Amino acid sequence: MSAGRSHVGGWLLVFALLGLCPAQARAQVLGDTVDAADDFQRLEQVYFVGSRVTEFDPATGRGRLRWDRQQRRPALSFGKIDIGLSKAGADEFPATEYEESPRLPFSVTFVSPRTIRLRFSSRDAPPRDAPSLMLDGTPPSDRSWRVEQTAEAVTFTSTAGRIRLVRDPWHVEFYDASGRLLTRTQNAGDPASFYAPVPFSFVRRARDLGRSTAAAFQLAHDEKIFGCGESFTRLDKRGQRVVAYARDAMGVENEWMYKPVPFFLSSRGYGLFVHTSAPVTFDFGRTFGQHNTVYTQDEELDLFLFIGTPREVLSEYTRLTGRSPVPPLWSFGLWMSRITYRSEAEVRDVAERLRRHRIPSDVIHLDTGWFETEWRGDYRFSPTRFPDPARMLADLKRQGFRVSLWQYTYFTPKNELYAEVVSKGYAVRGEGGGPATEDAVLDMSNPEAVRWYQSKLAGLLKLGVAAIKVDFGEGAPAAGLYASGRTGLYEHNLYPLRYNKAVADLTREVTGEQIIWARSAWAGSQRYPVHWGGDAENTDSAMAATLRGGLSLGLSGFTYWSHDVGGFVKRAPRDLYRRWLAWGVLTSHTRAHGAPPREPWEYDEALVEDYRRAVGLKYALMPYVLAQARDSSALGHPLLRPLFFEYPDDPTSWTVEDEYLFGRDLLVAPLFEEGANARRVYLPPGAWVDYQTGKTYAGARWHRIEAGTIPVVLLARAGSVIPHVGVAESTDRIDWTDVELRVYATDDAPASGLFTTPRDGLRTLTVGPGRRGPVLREDPSGGRIRWRISRFGGR
Predict the structure, then answer these.
(1) How many CB atoms lie within 10 A of CB 52?
(2) Residue-wise DSSP of 727-757
(3) C-alpha dihedral (377, 379, 384, 390), degrees to nearest 10
(4) Is 599 annotated in the active site?
(5) What pLDDT is recorded for position 74?
C-alpha cells in the first residue's frame, strides 16, 4: 500500500468512526430517507455562519447578511478527537472571483399580525417567487406592524407580538404580546460551550457544490414540540430527530413517515413552517439541548413563524397552506374493507350481510383485487369476476352503499400500460433516459401525464365509483429527472401533494364531492381529504402509535384522518379488534381494512353485537360529527385533537398522548391493554360526564374510570349539548327531522353545542332551564325539526 493510499484510508477510518463518512464512502439503498443534517457533519464541506447585518431597509424588510467562512477540523485533546468549527480562508481559484465571507440577501416580511416570514439566500440572488403548490395562493402582505430602529437593532411590533432584529452579532428574537421571549436564532457561540453545536448557517456541499441550510433557534428548558406530520414516535418531539422525508413507513412502529410535514408548533407559544419540498430534518434538542435546528437541502431558507396558542397557530398556518374542505356526509360512515374482495359476488354478499346484521355502513372498498390480475392496475374491472360493474355500483347505491377503489401510479413491466407510459414520456426518467426504476413511475409534474392518468380514473368515476384510494406515492425516485425541470431532490416530497391534487381535482369535477382516500402527504395535502394511517401492526403498541400519528397529523394542519381499525398486517386479534373499533368510530373517518377477515360475522355473534353497538354510536352522533367537521374545517383545526389544544393553560394536558378530544366536547380514552375494561384517565379543568353511565367527574385531575358496554372511556364536557339522531343503516337514511339534544351538565346553567344538517348552515344551540325542564332557546329549523331534550350528569 502506498503512503498516499494509507493516508486516505486512515482518514476514511476516522470519518467512519466519527459518523462523518463522505458520500462516496456511504452505502445507501433505494428508498432510504435523506437526512439533511448529515451535510453539516462532514469535514469536506465549507461552512458559512451568519454573523452581522451589513444592510437593512426597515421599509421593505430587505437587507444583506454577512456569512463568515468556517470549516470543521479535527482537534486532539486528552486522548480524544473533537470536530469543531473554526475560521477558514478562501480556497477558490481564481481568488478574485469569489467572496471569502459573502454578504447575501435576506428579508423579514409580515403576512398577518401573527405571521412573520424570514427568507435567506445562500447565493447572491433574490429569493425565487414562483407559485408554490404548498401555499394556498400568494401570501398576503400585512402592514400593521410598527417599526422602531436604533444603531443596535430594528424592532417590529404588532397586536400579537414583537420581533427584534439585532444587527451585530446578528440575531432575530421573537416575543409574544406580553413581552415574553418565545425563541431567538442561535449563532456561533450561542451559548458559550466546549461542545460545538451547528449555528444558523449554510454549507457548500463538496459532492455537487450545491447548498444546504441550517436554521438554529433557542429551546427553553421546558419547551415541548409537536407536529411534523403523521409521526408515530412520542407525541412530544422534544429530544427527537425527525426526518421529514416521505417514505413507505412499513407500519407504525418506527420513525419513518408516510406523511411528513415540515411544520411544528411549540408549547412556548409559536409554530414554524419550513417552506420547501427538499429534504428537511428537525433536531429538537437531541444533539444539543438548547438548540432547535432545522436542516434542509434547499439552497434558499424560507421560514414562516406563527405567534399564538395552538388554535391560533394552526389557523394561521392553514390560512397560508390551505384548509380541508368538508368531505361528503356518507364518507363519515363505516367503510367496510379487507385486502381484498375479488369478485362482484363477494361484494354483494358483504353488502347483504351488513344489512342483515343491521350494521350501519356507507362504503364498501375494493382493494387490490378488482383487476384481472391482482395488483396489476390497469383501471379496468376484471371482466371475468365483475361482469357488470355499472349495474353492481347502481344496485349498491340504491342500498345506501358507495364504492371506493384502490389504485396506484407505479406500472410494472407486465402491465399493458407500461409501454404507453414510457413511450409517451409520462414516466419519471433516470439518468440514461429510460424509467428511473424497475417500474414506470408516473411523473405527476408532467401536465400531459396527469391528464392521461385522470382520463383513466374519470371513466371509473362516471361509471358510479364514489372515491379513489390514492395509495403509495412515497416512492418518487430521489435520483429521477422530472418534467418540472427539477430532480427528485425537490420532487420526491412534492409527489404526494401532486398526486393527492390530481385525484381530488378530478373527483370534484366528475362527482362534485371533495373526497379521496390517500396514504401519502406533504404540506398542503390537507386541502385534499381524506388521509389514513397506513399499514399498522396488529398490536396494542401499534394501536397507541397509530393514535399518536393521527394527533401529530392533526397538529400539522389536517382536519380529517383515519386508520385501519384492528391493524393491517394480519388477522386482527378479537379483543384488540373490539377495543380498536370502539375508538375508531370516534375519529373523523372509520374504516375496517387489512388481512382477512375483517367482517365481524367471520368471528362470532358476540362480536357482531359489539360491532353494531360501536358503529351505531357514530351514526347516532352524526349531527355532532358533521357540525364539528364544519367548524374545524372553517378554522383549520383537527377534528381529533390533543387535550392541550383546548386547554393550553393546563400543564398536565401537554403531557397526555393516549387520550384525545373528538371535536370540542367529547373526550376519548381508548383501552390499550388486552382484556382491559378500565384505565387511568386525565381530565382537563372543568366537570366531565361519563357518556355511558352519566357519572360526573371533576377535572384537572386523574381518575380510574371503567369503560361501558362499548369498550372505551368516553366523556362529555359539562355544559355541552350533543345532538343525536336515530341510528340508520346508512347516512342516506338518517331522519334529520327528529333530533335528540343531550345536555351534559352539573347545574341548571345554560348549555350549548354546535348543530347542522346536510342542508343547513352551522348554528349554536343553547338549552336553558324552563318551567317543565330544559328548553331550546331558539329553534333554527323554523319548526322543521322535532327536538327532544334529555339531561345527563349530576347536580
Answers:
(1) 16
(2) --SSGGG--TTEEEEEEE-SSSS-EEEEE--
(3) 150
(4) no
(5) 92
CB of 737 within 8 A of CB of 785? yes
Cα atoms in the 13 Å half-sphere on the side-chain side of 14:
17
> Where do the H-state alpha helices sit in 19-154?
none
All three cell numbers of 323, joined, read 384548509
Report d(CA 753, CA 789) in Å as an integer: 13
Tens-digit pLDDT profile for residues 240-264: 999 999 999 999 999 999 999 999 9
Distance of alpha carbon 461 from alpha carbon 389, whole angstroms: 12
pLDDT digits (tens, 9 = 90+) for 207-231: 999 999 999 999 999 999 999 999 9
Q: How far is CA 519 from CA 204, 215, 231, 266, in A?
A: 35, 30, 13, 26
Reading the block at residue 352, the C-alpha cell is 347483504
Q: Which residue has the cell 454577512?
A: 66
pLDDT tens, 386-425?
999 999 999 999 999 999 999 999 999 999 999 999 999 9
Residue 607 has pLDDT above 70, yes or no: yes
Q: Which residue has the cell 357518556?
A: 691
pLDDT at 680: 98
DSSP state of 522: -
pLDDT tens column, 118-175:
999 999 998 888 899 999 999 999 999 999 999 999 999 999 999 999 999 999 999 9
| Ordered alpha helix ranges (H), 562-679 | 574-584, 605-620, 622-635, 643-646
Torsion sign (Cα): 381, 385, 389, 394: negative
* Distance from C-alpha of 721 to C-alpha of 657, rounded to nearest angstrom: 26
Residue 401 CB neighbour total at 10 angstroms: 25
pLDDT above 70 as % of the chain = 96
C-alpha cell at 567: 391493524
pLDDT band at 795 (very low <50, low <70, confident <90, very high): low
List, as one string, the DSSP characters of 491-514: HHHHHHHHHHHHHHHHHHHHHS--
How many Å apart are CA 552 and CA 642, to the nearest integer? 9
Q: How many CA atoms lie within 13 A of 259 on its CB side?
A: 37
CA dihedral 577, 579, 585, 589 (to 10 degrees): -50
Active-site position among 471, 513, 540, 610: 471
Annotation marks residue 602 as catalytic: no
pTM of the predicted structure, to 2 decimals: 0.96
pLDDT bucket at 17, cuts 50 / 70 / 90: very low
Distance separating alpha carbons of residues 526 and 263, to the nearest angstrom: 13
**631 has pLDDT over 70:** yes
Closest CA to 41 of 59, 27, 21, 12: 21
Rg (CA), the chain: 28
Angle between helices 447-463 and 389-398 (to 10 degrees): 60
Tens digits of per-residue pLDDT, 704-743? 999 999 999 999 999 999 999 999 999 999 999 999 999 9
Report the amino acid identity of residue 431.
E
Measured distance CA(560)–CA(498) in Å, rounded: 19
Q: Would you list the DSSP string of 533-570?
A: -----SSHHHHHHHHHHHHHHHTTT-S--B-BTT-SSS
CA 369 vs. chain centroid, Å, equals 29
115 DSSP β-pair partners: 112, 306
Q: Over the chain, what is the mean pLDDT?
A: 95
Are the beta carbons of 297 and 278 closer than 8 angstroms? yes
Determine the Cα–Cα distance for residues 430 and 227; give it in Å rounded to an integer: 34
- Compute CA 90 distance to the chain's CA centroid, rounded to the nearest angstrom: 43
SS3 190: coil
Q: Is 474 among the catalytic positions? A: yes
Name 715's bridge partners.
667, 690
Give me the catalytic one of 474, 631, 646, 659: 474
CA gap 290, 436 in Å, rounded: 42
For β-strands 666-669 and 687-690, DSSP reports them as unpaired
In angstroms, how far is CA 92 from the centroid of its own chain?
Answer: 43
